[in-house]
Design goal:
By secondary structure, the protein is of the alpha/beta class. The chain contains 23 helices and 15 strands. Helix 3 runs parallel beside helix 5 and helix 17 packs antiparallel against helix 21. The structure holds beta-D-glucopyranuronic acid.
Length: 721
């Protein structure tokens, strides 16, 4: 008897813990039990009679998702019916499949779904109302189902409202910087989730959860390998491995891309050259590509980093980027594949401001790229800095299809120890006015607009995913993956909406949690900019691992040093990119060049990005530049402490596992913010020789000590640096 009682106590304790513990693995697809009786009954009704118009692997993926969701949210299995009329409550299918049951009005309503869009809402047929989820293609139905589940979880479901949604961008892609040995360049969440060694024989169930998470956001493409590419990925053995992933991802609407090393013809093809105009090289790539399609018939294409940071490329043979890209594009074209060529090109051998180099390379090649080429451009001209003005290429070419590359992994934004919600930063870039090709153009509109009907549009994000149980190292890294997916689908969305949705999906709808977590998230980016690189400072982090501050970094290749970027001297600080300096500003539209050339007109957040100014330059609030810099650093630290305090006040309102995970990381973030402030201010003071303003907390510590810190084992370091 006693034994039985103990056992039942044990079982209930472990059940309690298994219910309350949350390691974050389920991401935003946690499907917690529905508490609200009305919502529960509405969802239950729908799950009581699901009718699919036809069968295909995507519908099977939908059924798997509904099985899971219904089980977790309602504690019951859904009922699938074969009878369309008598028992069904919800209909799912493509517009074609439903054509016999749609009235003309309904057909009209549902006609503008684009390739991947969906419609969901009430549908009247023969005197009865059904709920329907309709896509142009099965994947549209899948997206509609995820949207329905999202609305149930966030309690926004309304069965009488009709919703139509379709993505504004065609290719919504994750770029993994994963190496074949499972290390991840700039990865802070463990190792690569691609277990190349055990593939193709062993299929990690995590691959499916990865596909589900992406599909739930509308992400429809993934490049599996590092842009600093290894040619081995193009060998037959690896194609067989990649095929397994492509087969798993297909029902979720996700296409696989791989990175192509430009010198592969030499490394794995036995050729002496990789010259893109050499007939044997052309033949090599054609045969490789054909072979790839024999394994993966819907292979997405190649992503290429060439002639940048030591990667091989067409320049070695006196050819330009268009000649390199077009040769690969020709190999892909017969299969409908895409060639994504990165604009992240710069060289220390070129005597030009790094900021200008991509435009100098690509502007003269405008209109020279084949139709299946997309030039993938980072959001800013330097390199994923905490804040960058938008890349001038976005306004500078009219006849080249440009795609956006964001970095989801927080290489320069606190890596996996800091909570920095990146949506506000991406939103700022996407909403920036380019004034070209027309007065109303924004970065978002440039990306969303195909230059003609055959061109595809693209948004890519460098993944922050790894083998950590919660996928992203920091729980809030998940919010960045989420936000990226949402913005790739609709670049016009605002960060607040995205944050609210993610918080509800992640923590439920406790209003106190919602308000406080939202505040933390929405203020986190500005806080990080303040304690890392305020007022347009940039590229002053530690060398090679990029972890923590390193404004003193000098020596070696100039454009990899901090001095090159901040140019602090006894007179002042900042990079003069106006006409008296490198004139990078002239690469923007005249409206921008004109306004930003004046240090009193330019938004202060970009001040030192474009201007070298005296320490006593007057800021808008009346402070001197030196005082302003000091105040920004100090206020960044204070904001970080505020975030920590706000989070602490949520104890008991968030499950202990996730609460303590974030609590500990926020404590690290505060220490790192202080480290940034102290070391940057002490360093800049050693140059300006000015006293710190009285109103700030005085930086403490010894500059020499900060300089001596080294992190040889910091994660994510690029192996060759
Ligand atoms: C930089 C990273 C480096 C990448 C490079 C790239 O430090 O590891 O290889 O970008 O985007 O941000 O190619």
């Amino acid at each position: 008897m006693l034994k039985a009682t103990l056992l039942s106590i044990f079982i209930s304790i472990s059940l309690f813990f298994s219910v309350s513990a949350n390691d974050g693995y389920n991401l935003w697809l946690d499907y917690r039990p529905i508490q609200n009786p009305e919502l529960k009954s509405q969802f239950k009704t729908l799950m009581d009679g699901i009718y699919f118009f036809g069968e295909n692997p995507t519908y099977q993926a939908i059924k798997n998702e509904l099985d899971l969701a219904s089980d977790k949210m309602l504690n019951q299995a859904p009922v699938y019916t074969n009878e369309r009329l008598s028992n069904s409550k919800i209909w799912m299918g493509t517009r074609d499949q439903l054509s016999q049951v749609l009235s003309l009005t309904q057909q009209g309503e549902i006609s503008n779904l684009g390739q991947d869009g969906y419609w969901r809402g009430p549908l009247d047929f023969e005197g009865k109302t059904y709920y329907a989820i309709i896509g142009n293609k099965p994947v549209g139905v899948l997206y509609g189902v995820y949207n329905l589940l999202n609305s149930i979880q966030t309690k926004t479901f309304n069965k009488s409202i009709k919703i139509t949604d379709s993505p504004k961008v065609k290719v919504r892609m994750l770029n993994h910087w994963d190496n074949l040995d499972r290390t991840v360049e700039r990865g802070y969440a463990g190792f690569s989730i691609w277990d190349w060694h055990k593939l193709p024989g062993y299929v990690d169930p995590r691959y499916i959860d990865y596909a589900r998470a992406n599909a739930s956001l509308g992400i429809n493409a993934v490049s599996l390998t590092n842009v600093n590419a290894n040619a081995l990925i193009l060998t037959t053995d690896f194609m067989k491995k990649a095929k397994v992933l492509a087969d798993l991802f297909r029902p979720y609407g996700i296409k696989v891309f791989l990175t192509a090393r430009f010198s592969a013809p030499i490394q794995i093809g036995g050729l002496k050259t990789a010259d893109p105009l050499d007939p044997d090289v052309i033949k090599f790539w054609k045969e490789k590509t054909d072979e790839m399609y024999s394994y993966i018939p819907d292979f997405g294409g190649f992503l290429v980093k060439a002639n940048s940071e030591g990667q091989p490329g067409p320049h070695e043979y006196g050819r330009n980027h268009a000649e390199g890209a077009n040769m690969l594009a020709d190999a892909l074209a017969p299969h409908g594949g895409l060639l994504i060529w990165r604009a992240f090109v710069y060289s220390h051998e070129v005597d030009e401001d790094r900021h200008k180099q991509a435009n100098l390379e690509f502007e003269p090649l405008d209109s020279k790229f084949k139709e299946n080429v997309i030039i993938q451009v980072k959001n800013g001209a330097i390199d994923f800095q905490p804040r960058e003005p938008f890349h001038p290429l976005f306004g500078a070419v009219n006849n080249t299809q440009l795609g956006m590359e964001f970095q989801i992994t927080q290489e320069y934004l606190g890596q996996a120890t800091q909570l920095v919600f990146l949506a506000p930063m991406w939103e700022e870039v996407l909403k920036s006015k380019t004034y070209q090709p027309n007065q109303n153009a924004t970065v978002a509109s440039v990306i969303e607009t195909p230059i003609n009907k055959n061109h595809k549009t693209l948004i890519a994000g460098v993944s922050n995913i790894g083998t950590d149980r919660n996928w992203t190292g920091h729980l809030f890294g998940q919010a960045n993956w989420y936000a990226f997916g949402k913005l790739a689908w609709n670049p016009e969305l605002d960060s607040k909406t995205i944050a609210e949705e993610w918080i509800k999906l992640t923590f439920g709808d406790n209003p106190d949690v919602l308000t406080k977590v939202e505040k933390i998230m929405l203020e986190s980016h500005e806080a990080a900019v303040d304690y890392m690189t305020p007022l347009g400072l940039h590229h002053i982090m530690g060398r090679s691992h990029h972890y923590g501050p390193g404004p003193w970094v000098t020596g070696g290749r100039a454009d990899w040093t901090s001095l090159y970027y901040h140019r602090a001297d006894s007179l002042g600080i900042g990079f003069d990119r106006t006409s008296t300096g490198s004139n990078a500003l002239a690469q923007y539209a005249p409206e921008i060049t004109h306004n930003w050339s004046d240090p009193n007109e330019i938004p202060e957040k970009f001040l030192l990005w474009f201007h070298h100014l005296p320490w006593d330059f007057k800021l808008k609030n009346g402070m001197t530049l030196w005082e302003g810099i000091a105040n920004h650093y100090d206020s960044g630290v204070k904001k970080a402490r505020e975030m920590e305090k706000t989070w602490a006040s949520l104890e008991g309102e968030i499950d202990p596992e996730r609460f303590h995970h974030v609590e500990q990381l926020l404590a690290i973030q505060v220490e790192e913010a202080e480290w940034w402030r102290n070391s940057c201010l002490l360093y800049f003071q050693s140059i300006s020789h000015l006293p710190f303003p009285n109103n700030i907390e005085q930086p403490v510590g010894d500059l020499e000590y900060y300089k001596s810190l080294s992190f040889p084992n910091a994660p994510g370091i690029r192996p060759s640096w």
